[in-house]
Amino acid sequence: MEDHRVISLENVTFTYEGDVVALRDLNLAARRGEFVVVLGANGAGKSTLCYLISGIVPHIYGGRRRGDVRVVDLDPWDEPLYITAQRCGVLMQDPEVQLFMPTLKAELAFGPANLGVPREEILRRSREALALVRLEGLEEHNPRDLSGGQKQRAALASVLTMQPQVLVLDEPTSQLDPLGRWEVGEAIEQLKRTGDLTIVMTTHETEEVLHLADQVLVLEQGETVLQGPPGRVFAQTDRLERAGVKTPALVQIQALLQLNRADQPEDARWSLTVSEVADRIRRAVREGRLVIRPEAVAPPRRPVTDGPVVLEARNLTVEYPGPPPVTALRDVSLTIRQGEFVGIVGQNGSGKSTLVKCFVGLLRPKKGEVLFRGQNLRRFSVGEIARRIGLVLQNPDYQLFTASCRDEIRFGLRNVGIPENEIDRRVEEALQRVGLEAYADLFPFRLSFGDRRKLAVAATMALGPEVLILDEPTTAQDHRGRYQLAELARQFHEEGGTVLMITHDVDLIARYAQRLIVLHEGRVLLDGPTAEVFARVEELRKSFVVPPVAAQLAQALAPLGMPAHVMTLEELTRALTPTEG
Amino acid sequence: MQPAFRYTHLNTPIHRLHPLVKLAYLLLTLVLVMYPIRLTDMPILLIWLAFSAFLWALARIELRRFATLLKILLGTFVFLILIQGFTYRGGETPLIVLGHLKLWEADLGVIKKEGVWFGLVLSVRILAAASALPLFVMTTPTSAIMTAMGKLRVPQTATFMFVSALSFTTLLFEMWSSIVDAQKLRAFDIDAMNPIRRAFKAYIPIITPLILLLFRKANDFQIALETKGFGAPIRPTEVETLTTRPADYFWLALIVGVFVLCTVLKFS
User: Fold this and answer.
1) pLDDT of residue B244
2) C-beta atoms of A111 and B234 within 8 A
3) What is the torsion angle, in degrees rounded to the nearest 10, for the CA atoms of residue B8, residue B9, residue B11 and residue B13?
4) How far is B34 from chain A (nearest CA, A)?
5) A399 and B212 in contact by Cβ < 8 A?
6) How many angstroms separate the CA atoms of A567 and A530, rounded?
7) If contacts are CB pairs under 8 Å, which of residues 435-454 in chain A contact chain B?
8) What is chain A's alpha carbon radius of gyration, rounded to the nearest angstrom?
9) Is B262 exposed, middle or buried (0-12, 13-18, 19+ CB in 10 A)?
10) Is any Cβ of chain B less than 8 angstroms from the Cβ of A459?
11) Which 8-state DSSP code applies to residue B201?
12) CA–CA distance, A406 with A395 (Å, rounded to integer)
């Protein structure tokens, strides 16, 4: 029997102008209401697939295509974009560029109004879309004034008013904080529940889509390496790893501990919640298939308590002028000691970036002071601060402007007055440290995003700071590149440096930080050894911070003797040993 | 960092005013300042400026916004006053004599009183013109501007270009601020530089990343626009409606009245 496919790609190969092959022999079929998840490392071809389905290719990005593409009975290649857009909507990563109207109401009306949809129908669709993404009451707000999660939901609603049958989501949560991710995730879940839309979503966050996916497609360098129901695809942990895709932690644990149930159908083999997996582990321990060995886990990492204080915030209050004025930090006091590796977490707007901007002198607090080795930071010039405290921003593209990587590192060194012969030595050393020596003369914008971030780290480290601050080192990175910056920070820490790391990635914190500070609404909510802070689940919930899966499992298994300070998968699997036979 | 003259949502008589009335005020301002300029025009310009100040006050626009406007224009004013002071042809009364440098009929070594006055008249003219636009932009939501332009039969593409330029200004300011901060982290402090150094050297590390980032954003912007049917060969629906109230006629009459008064004074 011929099924009705909403999306159908048969043997599709796509080559961009300049002969870059982005997709090879791709096959994909999706029916109405189906949720397709596309995974792969950066550069695997995920976005190209989105562009092919939505008609962005060839109408905006040119290239050559082989094979057949049908989306709701038409070939996007042959139709003008506004025709395809009525069948297939697209939501991109960055909500900022998708919102251009002065009010949310106008934003939602923009698409259907362009297509001449009657006014009353536009208003009805807008009401429905707003209710679905839970933004009712904000119609008159400027979309730019909304929070990150709200912006992305507004962008989603503005796509939904076009009433597409296919929705393409290209890493829709990659630039959001945990609350934003949760909000957008909930809206997507709601859409899936309606069952009308066929959804294609690309992501690096496999945990987020595990329970939504009907079909998973894994791409590697433009080729399909795995395809099928999530249970079958996620069981291939080694292949996923090779393709640079993160296996969901819960699946990984079950695979490593051989807890999956081979007698069950593919989709039911894996438990997808922490409590279910904890139950499976408990059962395996009771039945003697697993043994808990607390001694196999290294003792918890302790924060430095006796080193000299390098940075100190004393009663910091920072207010941004309005209208309306926003108090970003409220009477924050804390000290950072030499040799610490500190993680800072909190929602967007909790004050994390404001705090580190105070630490590097970019912001002057309204009240309170920042001390560097006991001296007020106001006494230091911009150059003096740069030589002592380095901040690596989330987006390297805000600072790269020279013709070569070498010049990019030289720029800061010249600004602080380092002699020319010393500059050359430091440039080479910095390039080697981040592994970019082969690209020394390359135009920085020709590097990948990950390498541009490494270059920004090199430019910062070349200045020889005592303190290194990383702002969201995993942003826009795939599974493979995720820890590259953190590894550079770890090296710096091992050499005696002090590291502060702002991130939403709790796995990153669990792996590297000795101490964790949680900021919430401009105040320090929690501050202590990482494992202890992760154990305070209720307080963390206030700030939408969820401890890593391994830490949650360790807490659930604590009555059986699992050490409570276990935070990583490696530690958990070390503590759980399968018995022989 | 936000643009200094962004729309602020308030409920004042000026905010409630029909956009076309505000547009009329804007156009009449432009007409007034385009009249051939004379030394004796100062009272007329001051009347219009005072009227604008009254509207600013009524719209509850903070005084610091006016200070920002003055700050932006100050360099131009100083330049105009000096250049007119030195070069104004009709001037005979020396104010400051620096020496004598004859160039054709003009003596470039003498600052003349009439020239300084003419420079001041020109400055007030620029101020009158410049103070009208923020009043319009800060009290009129962009959606209302779009609808009003639609009523004037301005093509949708042109209207959208105007509106998205306003929206992009915010993005531009945010990016500018982030880039300045990013370069400060490498000890490049543009804010601490003197204006001459800033003008000649400092902008490269700021403007280069700004342009590259804008190119990238523009691509995504195009995708977002075209996938929402922008440019489709279909007559777009007018979603926003504007209603006219009696107060709008009163204000229109007042604005036209002040304009007529100024015109009569000028040409009488």
Assistant:
1) 87
2) no
3) 40
4) 32
5) no
6) 9
7) 445
8) 25
9) buried
10) yes
11) I
12) 19
Residues from chain A contacting residue B181 (CB–CB below 8 Å): 357, 362, 393, 398
CB-CB neighbors (< 8 A) of A114 in chain B? 228-232, 234, 236
Domains of chain A as residue ranges with CATH: 5-243 (3.40.50.300), 309-513 (3.40.50.300)
Q: Express each pLDDT in A400-409 by its tens digit.
A: 999 999 999 9
DSSP-derived secondary structure for B223-247: HHHHTTTTT-SSPPP--------HH
Please list every residue in chain A whose beta carbon sits closer than 8 Å to the beta carbon of residue B179: 398-399
Measured between CB atoms, which of B170, B192, B224 is closest to A382? B192
Peptide bond into A265 cis (omega under 30): no
CA A106, chain centre distance (Å): 30
Helical (H) or strand (E) element with A198 = strand A198-202
Q: pLDDT digit string (tens) for B158-213?
A: 877 777 777 677 778 888 889 999 999 998 888 778 777 777 777 889 999 998 88
Assembly ipTM? 0.82
Is the Cβ–Cβ distance between B206 and B173 less than 8 Å?
no
Length of chain B: 268
Contact B247, B255 (CB under 8 A): no
Nearest CA-CA partner of A220 in A245, A246, A243:
A243
Question: In B, which residues are within 8 Å of A468 by CB distance?
Answer: none
Average pLDDT estimate for A524-528: 95
Q: A130 Cβ partners below 8 Å, 6+ apart?
A: A104, A108, A136, A138, A139, A157
Pairing verdict, β A198-202 and A35-40: parallel
Output the DSSP codes for A291-327: EE-GGGSPPPP----SSPEEEEEEEEEEEE--SSPEE
Question: Measured between CB atoms, does A541 come within 8 Å of chain B?
Answer: no
Question: H or E element: which one contains A125?
Answer: helix A119-132
One-letter amino acid for residue A98 of the chain = Q
Residue A572, both tokens: 């958990």
- Tell me the nearest-neighbour CA distance from B183 into chain A, angstroms: 6
**pTM: predicted TM-score of the whole model, two decimal places:** 0.80
Residue of A nearest to B175 (CA): A398
Q: Which of A447, A427, A434 is nearest to A488 (CA)?
A: A434
Element (H, E) at B69: helix B63-87
Residues A464 and B89: their CA atoms lie apart, in Å, by 61
Check CB contact under 8 Å for A415 and B209: no
Chain A residues with beta carbon closer than 8 angstroms to that of B163: 100-102
Residue of A528, A566, A529, A524 lying closest to A549 (CA atoms): A566
What contacts B200, CB < 8 A, 6 or more positions away?
none
Nearest to B129 by CA among B32, B46, B36: B32
